[in-house]
Design goal:
Elements: H1 4-22
Region (Disordered): 1-23
Length: 23
């Protein structure tokens, strides 16, 4: 997921867990 850190702002509802591990 490219731009997960940016999209997570609005998709943090779901990407929150994905971005957490990607961060």
């Amino acid at each position: 997921f490219v731009g997960a850190e940016v999209s997570r702002g609005s998709e943090n509802l779901v990407d929150s867990e994905a971005s957490s591990s990607d961060t």
